[in-house]
Amino acid sequence: MRSVVSCLAVLAATPFAVAVGHAQAGRDPGKGDSSLEEVIVTATFRPQTLTQVPASVTVLEKKTLDDAGQQHIQDVLALVPNLAWAGGTSRPRYFQIRGIGEREQYEGAPNPSVGFLIDDIDFSGIGMPATLFDVARVEVLRGPQGTRYGANALAGLIAVHSADPGELPGYAVDGSLADFGTGSLGFTATAPVEILNSSWRFAVQRYRSGGFTHNTYLDRNTNARDELTGRLKWRFAPSDATTVDATLLHANLGNGYDAFAIDNSRHTLSNRPGEDSQRATGASVRVVTTSWSPYTLTAIGSSADSKSLNSFDADWGNAASWAPYTYDYYSSSSRDRRTANLELRLASPAAQGPGATAWLAGIYLLDLNEDGRDLLKGVYADPADPSFDGTSADALANRYEATNVAAFGQLDGFLSERWRWSAGMRMEQRTANYSDAGIWGGSSQVTSLSARNRMLGGQASLSFDLSQAASTYVSLSRGYKAGGFNLGAVPPGGRYFSPEYLWNVEAGIKSGLLSGRGFVDGAVFYESRRDLQVRTGKQLDPANPGTYLFITDNLDRGYNLGVEGTIRYFLTPALEVGGSVGLLRTRASGGLDENGVPVATREQAHAPEYQLGAYGTWRHGSGFMVRADVNAQDNFYFDVPSDHNQQSRAYTTVNLKVGFERPAWSAYAWVRNAFDADYAVRGFYFYNEPPFLKKKLYTQPGDPRQVGVTVNWSFY
Known about the structure:
Blueprint (H helix, E strand, L loop, with lengths): L3 H10 L26 E2 L6 E2 L7 E5 H7 L14 E4 L7 E4 L16 E5 L2 E2 L12 E8 L13 E7 L7 E9 L3 E12 L4 E12 L4 E2 L4 E2 L3 E15 L2 E16 L9 E2 L5 E16 L6 E18 L5 H4 L3 E22 L9 E25 L10 E23 L4 E22 L2 E25 L2 E12 L2 E2 L10 E2 L2 E14 L4 E22 L8 E23 L4 E15 L20 E10 L4 E10 L17 E11 L3 E8 L7 E7 L9 E6 L4 E10 L1
Parallel strand pairs: 6-9, 13-17
Antiparallel strand pairs: 1-2, 3-8, 4-5, 6-7, 8-9, 10-11, 10-38, 11-12, 12-15, 13-14, 15-16, 16-18, 18-19, 19-20, 20-21, 21-22, 22-23, 23-24, 24-25, 25-28, 26-27, 28-29, 29-30, 30-31, 31-32, 32-33, 33-34, 34-35, 35-38, 36-37
């Protein structure tokens, strides 16, 4: 879609909007319900209705997740306008909101642009454990969260919330079977403990799949997925004024990784397929009390220990693939990341009328420690040059530490009965230290680096209530992302990079439709980026694919502008339809290519100009249901212009689902990517085939067509 500007004008005049789910509670399966329940956004400082939030927000609630998803958050990302993700892993963990975000972060210096929380536990940059089992809500806040989340949310925030403990006892069982050797079994249980004035919820699921890649050389599937998710939640009310919510999460994703083929097919030739695994244990506690009435104190603390391994056959072949050359490389990177964070905030009562003002103030602490071990082993020999010795065995042990300390505050008030305003500010300091001791190229190297940044962000907004069910807003916000340092053999003067700052100007409208039968929400935005951080790549040795070096650099400036939104509507009590659109135009200027030549101004990487979606869900009173999703995405550049100008292809996918629902059980048959669309989720352009005369584009394919069935039993 090239005429983006004209499309922006059309959609700015037509209030398309964010698709939102509605709560499953209170709706009897199989019976039509043509009203949408009020959606509450909880990732902001104060819980607010979606209509009242002066920002572009998507809330996908349980019924939407159940209808459109299958196993992982990956399944529902297409429902969120201007949200993309980059492959290179077995599950998404590198996200882009409005075209801003990482595409990889292999080195031991994490610095994410998109925040990612699971039940208040920080998984930014390592969000693989975001399975959908027993998840009640996913909230996506687009645009810089300079006041609310600071340095780790320059582009926005994704917050996953699992189901809370219930007031009545019950349990449920969920099972699925599908082709490619796929199966899952899950169990949930909840009950109150009246003597302790509390309740608990337990959920556990095991998911296994043979994967979608067949290794022709080994004659077996080598991209298998083996995912275990367990969660225990406890809600305690020691008094009428205090609520305590505690969560314990354990996720063990032992996935294979053999995603790239020499011919860009789903048939690999690797003799040593890799692994992309993550074993994470985390806990969070949220305390909300009004014991100091009329003020509300909120304390949120969490910690997590996440061990991950990413390994792969770096040459993607075997001895027969490269004969008469000897060419065999293997790369492995393990990380042990430990995070601990604490947020304390004190808030006055919410403003209630003209002239009233509410305030909120707080502090935030985040401590991150990561230990890493990298290994690159291989050999290259050219029969035409017997004297050349391409044997290497490089090892690196590294440690990274980062501490974020922030203070923030926000004021909210009414100018009149229908005019509302809000203003906030956040001051944050981030200190990072890195050290390693390793052997590269036969020589011992020791590196010690540190960086400290003080940053300031915030927001101001003005809202007008068009009616009780509709509002419009304008906002100005400033986000930031900390600077840092590059690792490895970087060019002279390229060791450190500066913080990035982003100004976001946005206008939006949100409205209910026809007595609650629908909802529409849209936003127009312009983001000005200064010293924008981009990742460039350079292969130091054409004969060694493991020497592909990633470097973060600052470009002078860039901009991101667009429209995003969706509409949702009950045509009849049984038929719900909706659509989503994300239109995006991006530019970046500045920087040099690997030959020192200035690069041309161009679109940013992994920033498709359009993302479109449409769905329909029909539920008959007898219990039958049908769901169809159609999603389309434009082509996009895989990397920045200083690296290469290779692009993906535009594509469209179709997901279908039919089922029968009763209050105590349900059964579904489904097919994802029904027409087996061929599309890429990541691409690299480099030397990888002897005798290394030219670079070539290698792509990781998206998931193919998959057919399966799911059965649920619930006893509540």
